[in-house]
Amino acid sequence: MRELGAERNQPTLTDTYRETPPRKKRRGAFLVFAILWLVLIAGGVTGAKWYSDRIQQQVSSDLERQTASQIASMQQDYDIRMTKLESDYKEQLAQMGSKIEALNELLTFAKDNADTKTDNSNKLYSQLAEVKKQLAELKKSLDVLK
């Protein structure tokens, strides 16, 4: 009998199956494991969403800053060009004004001279006509004297 009892102290195949926990404990462990994985996945998704939003905000602010600096640079260039064009325009306008004034003076002088020249040329023409008449009379006189 001792042998039978000694054999009984050693676990048999059926005894080892009995020592495993019941199925309810296995389901609870699986449920905890599944919930833990779901929490980890949700945390990963939430973290990825937060990180992508943060990166998007940084890119947006960088782009806004670059755009603002480019707009400021273009505005400055535009202002410089407009100032230069305005000064060139005013300079050309002043030159045109002085040229117009000189032309007006020249026209006034020419008009004044044209009036006196016309009178003078009329006087000269009249005098030339008189001289021709006198020459013609002198020729007649000379012909008579010959």
Automatic annotation (TrEMBL):
- Keyword annotations for this protein? Coiled coil, Membrane, Transmembrane, Transmembrane helix
Q: Which residues lie within the region annotated Disordered?
A: 1-21
Entry's transmembrane regions: 28-51
Coiled-coil positions are: 93-141
Descriptive protein name: Uncharacterized protein
Lineage in the entry? Bacteria, Bacillati, Bacillota, Bacilli, Bacillales
